[in-house]
Design brief:
alpha+beta; 5-stranded antiparallel beta sheet; 6-stranded antiparallel beta sheet
Length: about 950
């Protein structure tokens, strides 16, 4: 704007003012102040902004008259800014609040310029006013969102940080500060190499960061970190590339959680498993696991094999009741002495009753597992059946007696080596151990020649040591013999000692026993122990698989809770964006095409954000559902045109609908979204074209583990399958297919929420979802939806109506019913008031239940209660219940951001409840209002 003086002609001064207005944009008023004459003139618009009589416009005013409308808190700052501008000259800009004629304050920005004469005195001060009220509000909301983000990052557990492409830290939360041991100002802008005391650790971290940024793929890994105080910990870190608006990787964001405790727990778990394995090896047969807290005892299958009891689980009393009455008190006292004391091992021999009523002699041993405070937790042990051993011991005793008698009578099993005369004496029994007939003469050559080559050196050395006067060792060996006549391999246990005459050994005498049977039994026992080890390993592997499945379920539940909460907050914020934009578009009409285009762009962006939050709610199973009895065949047939249009001309669509399909129980609109999502995913898997098949069928699963429908619980379902012949998915992609934000598509080609939305809807509908795929052979997704109880009772041939169509709506504002709006959020409440007023409805408003009920009693003409659900103290459902108790004919419409609230019954919405989801447009609100009022 060019300089202007008080002596300039009025036309030139007006031209200058217009040029300045055009340069500033969004102008709501102009002024010119002749500083030298203290004469201020304003236009009509500025007069209205400052609450002045328009008649005063273009007359000479005093500055005090205009400033009088400025907010009292802003006047000192305004006066100081004006004085400073007049003193120094040049450009002037200042923001303040002013009161208009309606008494409301609004934010404006004054922009002008002070012209100085040659002596530096102010002579002219022209300027314009710009309406910045909306901008200030948006900035406040932005600052609030940034504060919320900072609070969220700061409150997040563990370490949360962001780095630039060179590895310099951009931001870090409290956990980051604790890990590095320095305040943020000391580490922001520096790399790990400059911060971490361990150079190896720093190099490892930076190498991982560079790999993530180079690949553009997120990674989750375990890292061992060192704290400044010397502590070491294990962290579970998730690192993802940080991208700019164009999708370029400009840095890295990461989170880390301390899993040191989990690592310790895993080590303890391995220790328990090792004890279990050792206990299994220490016993032979029936393994048991006794949980002390409730007395539960788990047995392996040997309980049935050895003793005939077909049990896998009993209590401790059952075990005690099967002990022989003469042994019971002793065993009970002995095992409880270990449990109640500080012992860690117990063993006892007793008689145990078999299923047929006979008793088996057993050796029972157990290992005590205790908690951190020494309290008893579990005892794991094994019961060895001694019946065979006892019989063998009795037989051995009888044999030994016979051997003794035979030895005394005829030297049976005896051997005598006369070293002086080189004579070997073997009775017939001993000869038989070497496969020699009783009447055949033998010598030491027969002894050494009959020993197995692998045992010869050891046996010869033992005999020499027994005959050596310097050692006089006891001869005690076990060796194998190879029968001289029959070639049979036998095991022999021999014991003996030398007889000495001074320093000379004259004889070595002893006995020999055939132990082949015992060795065979030991081999069988070893084999049984190895098989037992294998079974224990299989049971541990199964337990690990179940624990992995539990962790996955917990992860999905945690992510669902987080996304649901975020989506709810965004829905509330979007409600104050989409609605007012709708109102603004209605007010502007077609008067300003460019402004209308900007509004449409803003509404489109906000609507897409609303769709994103709806997908988050679907994944977290918090979307409002209104399931009905539904004819799936009609729904699929009605979608044919939409599917064909969405798939394109290169993909052939084939629908196979079962003739006798039973009705399903589901939300029709959401089921359409599920089928469309699966079809679009299949389309993206067939970039060169292909075949897509959508089929329906009745599905009855009578028992768990059905090969045709694995992992689907027994029940009656309607099955919808979507199959393609695209490129398919590898197992690692199938495992993550339903995870939120996981996608194999390129940047900007997908949000990763399509299949997770499908997953959330099906689970919220009490259904099941299975996916089967092979690389290069296509993918099949099967959706199992429960049948209505009434349909199942009526049989499989039942029929039901299709998806309910939209109800007829009337133009808003015709009946002029009085509406009561209740919402604790001022911005949302004001939008609802403005929207309904724009439609022609008279409106009353309240910020809570107490005010609402008072207005309801005072205004009998209120026809509709329009209330938010989530409110402090008394929620919307409780308010509606009380209002209907007072006014049974009252219509009620609820507004909610998600369904996890008082509106739900068993996970779905009550069919009688009328609800509109946030955010909503004017058209959606008008349609829902007329629908609710039309049902009066």
């Amino acid at each position: 704007m060019s300089a202007s003086h008080s002596s300039d002609p009025p036309g030139e001064r007006d031209t200058e003012r217009v040029n300045m207005a055009l340069a500033a944009g969004a102008i709501i008023g102009t002024w010119f102040w002749d500083v030298a004459q203290d004469s201020l003139t304003v236009d009509d618009a500025l007069a209205r902004v400052h609450g002045l009589d328009p008649a005063l416009a273009r007359t000479e005013l005093r500055l005090e008259q205009v400033v009088a409308a400025v907010h009292p808190e802003d006047r000192p700052g305004l006066a100081e800014a004006i004085a400073e501008a007049v003193r120094r000259g040049g450009r002037y800009a200042h923001q303040y609040r002013t009161r208009s004629a309606d008494g409301q304050y609004r934010w404006i920005e004054a922009i002008g310029r002070v012209d100085l004469d040659a002596e530096g005195k102010a002579i002219g001060f022209p300027g314009v006013l710009i309406d910045i009220d909306e901008r200030r509000r948006v900035e406040a909301e932005r600052d609030q969102a940034q504060t919320l983000l900072r609070s969220f990052v700061e409150a997040a557990p563990g370490v949360v940080y962001a780095k630039d492409r060179q590895g310099r830290i951009l931001i870090g939360n409290r956990g980051t500060t604790e890990l590095i041991g320095r305040p943020p100002e000391a580490y922001v802008g520096r790399t790990d190499a400059e911060l971490l005391g361990d150079p190896v650790q720093a190099a490892t971290v930076m190498a991982t960061d560079e790999r993530v940024m180079a690949s553009g793929q997120s990674e989750q890994l375990e890292e061992e970190v060192s704290f400044p105080d010397g502590r070491r910990a294990h962290w579970l870190s998730t690192k993802s590339p940080l991208r700019d608006a164009d999708g370029n990787v400009v840095g890295l964001i990461g989170t880390s959680l301390d899993i040191t405790t989990r690592k310790v727990a895993e080590a303890r778990h391995l220790e328990v498993e090792e004890r279990y394995r050792l206990a299994a090896r220490a016993t032979n047969d029936a393994i048991w696991d006794w949980r002390i807290s409730d007395g539960q005892v788990i047995w392996n299958e040997a309980l049935a094999t050895l003793f005939g009891h077909a049990h896998s689980e009993t209590d401790a009393q059952w075990w005690l009741d099967h002990i022989h009455p003469d042994d019971r008190a002793r065993v009970d006292a002995g095992i409880h002495a270990v449990i109640d004391g500080d012992g860690d091992a117990w063993s006892a021999e007793y008689r145990f009753r078999r299923a047929d009523g006979s008793y088996a002699a057993v050796l029972d041993r157990g290992a005590m597992l205790r908690g951190a405070a020494g309290e008893p937790v579990r005892m794991i042990g094994a019961m060895l059946d001694l019946s065979g051993r006892k019989a063998a011991e009795a037989a051995l005793a009888d044999s030994e007696e016979r051997l003794r008698l035979a030895t005394e009578a005829g030297d049976m099993g005896f051997w005598d080596v006369d070293l002086v005369h080189d004579v070997l004496i073997w009775p017939a029994r001993t000869k038989a151990m070497f496969g020699i007939s009783p009447d055949v003469a033998v010598s030491m050559r027969d002894f050494y020649g009959g020993i197995h080559p692998d045992d010869l050196a050891m046996t010869s050395a033992a005999f020499a040591a027994a005959a050596d006067p310097a050692q006089r060792a006891r001869y005690d060996v076990e060796y194998r013999t190879i029968g001289k006549e029959d070639g049979v391999v036998r095991w022999v246990a021999a014991k003996g000692q030398g007889l000495f005459d001074g320093d000379r050994c004259v004889r070595v005498v002893g006995v020999a026993i055939d132990i082949s049977a015992r060795k065979a039994a030991d081999a069988r026992l070893h084999e049984l122990n190895e098989r037992l080890e294998s079974r224990v390993a299989e049971e541990v592997a199964e337990r690990t698989r179940v624990e992995d499945a539990l962790r996955q379920s917990q992860k999905m539940e945690a992510v669902g809770q987080l996304t649901g909460g975020i989506a709810h907050d965004f829905n509330n914020m979007l409600a104050t964006v989409i609605g007012p934009l709708d109102l603004l578009a209605l007010r502007l009409g077609d008067s300003d095409p460019r402004a209308t285009r900007y509004i449409d762009m803003a509404i489109d962006g906000a609507s897409r954000a609303a769709q994103l939050t709806q997908r988050l709610l679907a994944f977290s199973r918090q979307q409002p559902l209104q399931p009905v009895q539904l004819n799936v065949n009609q729904l699929v047939a009605g979608m044919s045109d939409l599917l064909v249009h969405s798939l394109g001309s290169r993909i052939h669509l084939d629908t196979v609908l079962a003739d006798d399909l039973s009705p399903a129980f589901a939300d029709a609109n959401q089921l359409e979204n599920v089928i469309l999502n699966l079809a679009v995913n299949a389309r993206d898997a067939m970039p060169e074209g292909g075949h897509l098949r959508v089929a329906t069928a009745n599905c009855c699963i009578d028992a768990p583990g059905d090969d045709a429908h694995p992992d689907v619980p027994p029940g009656r379902y309607i099955m919808i399958s979507v199959a393609d012949n695209g490129h398919g998915m590898p197992p690692e992609v199938i495992a993550k297919a339903f995870d939120p934000f996981f996608t194999t598509k390129g940047v900007g080609q997908g949000t990763g929420l399509g299949l997770s939305q499908v997953y959330g809807f099906v689970k919220q509908s009490s259904g099941h979802l299975k996916i089967a795929s092979q690389v290069g052979q296509g993918t099949t997704v099967k959706v199992y939806l429960p049948r209505p109880v009434a349909a199942m009772e009526a049989g499989d041939a039942g029929d039901a109506g299709g998806a309910p169509g939209p109800e007829g709506t009337a133009a808003p504002g015709g009946d002029r019913e009085l509406i009561l709006v209740v919402d604790d959020e001022p911005a949302v409440r004001q939008f609802s008031i403005d929207a309904l007023s724009e439609m022609g409805y008279p409106v009353l408003a309240a910020d809570g239940a107490a005010t609402a009920l008072a207005l309801l009693d005072a205004h009998p003409a209120i026809a509709l209660l329009f209330t938010d659900v989530v409110m402090p103290q008394v929620n919307g459902r409780e308010l509606a219940d009380e209002a209907l108790r007072r006014r049974p004919d009252l219509r009620v419409l609820f507004a909610t951001g998600y369904s996890r609230n008082a509106l739900e019954r068993d996970g779905v919405l009550d069919p009688s409840v009328q609800v509109i989801g946030k955010p909503f447009t004017l058209d959606e609100l008008a349609t829902r209002i007329r629908t609710v009022l039309a049902n009066a």
